[in-house]
Queue: 2 jobs
Job 1
Amino acid sequence: MRRWMSEVKLESGSRPSPAANATSFHLQPALMLVVRQLTKSYPSGGRTLTVLRDVSFTIPDGAFVAIVGPSGSGKTTLLGLLAGLDTPTAGSVLLDGAELGALSEDARAKLRGEKVGFVFQSFQLIPTLTAAENIAVPLELRGVRNAGVRARSLLDRIGLADRADHLPAQLSGGEQQRVALARAFANAPRVLFADEPTGNLDSATGDRIIQLLEELNRESGTTIVLVTHDTALASRAKRIIRLSDGAVVDDRELAA
Ligand code: ADP
Ligand code: MG
């Protein structure tokens, strides 16, 4: 367990931690996300269904934030907007200084490839590709050399070397989720979004996933934004933003 986590750390680059930056330059860490009055509505049978309303907050570089709230409160919608996978009806998202709404779809995709990792609620592994191929294909699309070799070494580091040639259907839920995480952090993203990453996992497996996220956050300074309705999991974050009916109803730092 410790082995794959510590090696993941080395794999994730040598960017100095934001805390170190802040100390050496006497500055606050830069803001990874600036969210201003974000609203998302859908037309629904002649009416308008507003699923996010006037959501505003900032997330500093290197933060570890949990977004919580009941089912249907808008968590997945919000995460998609923060990652530039979806566009808002009103309001804006600045990701590492880039105004997502001002970018073309291609430019947003490029930015995501460079800076963003995303783990979907349903894993979204490609069912016809093996575990190794699921990790390698996005690397190949970005022009990374030896993507297959790199994918296998990542699988080795998360303890799944012997599952490299298995299809997702031949993996347990926890194994699929680890493959999805390995795919998301293969490019050492600056910010990792994870939607219910431990949903449907037993608590021991969920704990391994969370330890990996904590390690990425602590050792590589990767900003983590995690959606969960698991209160034990949320309490591992350093800050909890609570949504209810599409609005932020609470936003607090947790004591260390
Ligand atoms: P959560 O992740 O908190 O469970 P979601 O963000 O998935 O919530 O959904 C919030 C609300 O938005 C729900 O009522 C959902 O039905 C609605 N919704 C999500 N996507 C769409 C869509 N494409 N069209 C219409 N309504 C949607
Ligand atoms: Mg959801």
Job 2
Amino acid sequence: MTFDYKVADISLAEAGRHQIRLAEHEMPGLMSLREEFGASQPLKGARIAGSLHMTVQTAVLIETLTALGADVRWASCNIFSTQDEAAAAVVVGKGTVEDPQGVPVFAWKGETLEEYWWTAEQILTWPGAETNPELGPNMILDDGGDATMLVHKGAEFEALGAVPAAADDESEEGRVFLEVLRASLQKDPQKWTRVGSRLLGVTEETTTGVHRLYQLAEQGKLLFPAINVNDSVTKSKFDNKYGIRHSLPDGINRATDVLMGGKVAVVCGYGDVGKGAAEAFRGQGSRVIVTEIDPICALQAAMDGYQVATLESVLAEGHIFITTTGNKDVIMAEHMAGMRDKAIVGNIGHFDNEIDMAGLARIPGIKKVEIKPQVHEWVLDEGTDAEKSIIVLSEGRLLNLGNATGHPSFVMSNSFANQTIAQIELFTKAGQPEGEREYEKQVYVLPKILDEKVARLHLDALGAQLTELTKEQAAYLDIDAAGPYKPEHYRY
Ligand code: NAI
């Protein structure tokens, strides 16, 4: 069997396979879904275009999807987040380096923006689909919404008959994105309309991607149903919080090896990710300051014992500044210019627009020194008495995946069990004829009973013993002894 793929170095496959093997042991949710659904093959006929950080944990997800019958093509959703050995191992699969038999992966660490959008196009471009649309992708598994956006924007511009001359925000990213769409429209003027019409649905991993989906649905522009995986409790209250608590310090350590104890860490945003970030710094003995725009989250931070302040008021105080907001323009160039010498600045939100990298590069006389890949020192006022520098991690992209290897397997087993269940839900239920469909072109979350199932799958591995409700207790609480245990409005 031959297939197209592009990874950094296919010979890394063996190293990747060892890591995948160990990760499987730490991913009981995914492994038990393989056991439960391996024989019935609920994803047989699913052709999944996956856009999610190509890490070791994602390799276990991909191989779970194929074990359940799916055909898959995969790209990373960030230019720095691929673990090259994992990508190689997924391509090789059960084959050999000479005769790979796995999954077409298009991902490597350190892609250019042009390469990034090329890989995104590859996962949505299935062999034979140009002449036979039946062979194209019918599901997207997305993280951040770039694959979904490519299809939606492509179809929108095809309907208009042209791609705009410039991106709304005039960013480099936007320029490259439009270039890719212009080229594809020239080659195949109906490509994205065709791809969009064949898609049964998308399952979205993260807060930022979910935000984009709700916007599309509100505007009546969503082309297919979507499941918001992020807001499964066993995703956002675990991955976003406990995952970050692990992978944020991992990224800072691998990048700088700076001692966090005693330092002042400024965490911008106190949502799920910010809560994990603040707790990680506190665990290391840092003094943590939180910035927030939402009074509820600000009050939570204060009650959790953190100082809550504006960024402007603590610029000179902080040693480490981390953005976790999913918002744009949070740390601007003027902020960085006001920080102390060798302050560390990083982002762990999905996109790189939280930190004003373009503005930093425009500061007159500023010099960028590469300490090592994904760690840069920006020197201001060089040669003067005022000389100082700022250390920026992963060029403003999410540092836990740019400087380290992202969240650990166990927490990702929760997220990816939700992803797998969501893929099965949509693939098996979104294709019915109109009138009988359970999923319309809207955004859904998984039923609570499935959320509870994901949690249940992870208890044994931690030796956690669940108390069972008696019949009388269940009747008293007016719930089923088998769950769901909480009403929809419960917040955990
Ligand atoms: P969230 O919505 O729970 O939290 C974001 C918080 O930032 C909110 O409380 C909001 O009020 C606050 N905020 C917004 N603008 C702000 C500003 N200008 N200054 C201070 N605070 C501000 O979102 P969540 O789930 O915490 O996710 C945050 C980002 O992290 C998203 O982009 C998400 O996609 C991403 N993410 C990244 C992961 C990673 O591995 N790096 C893992 C999970 C999520």
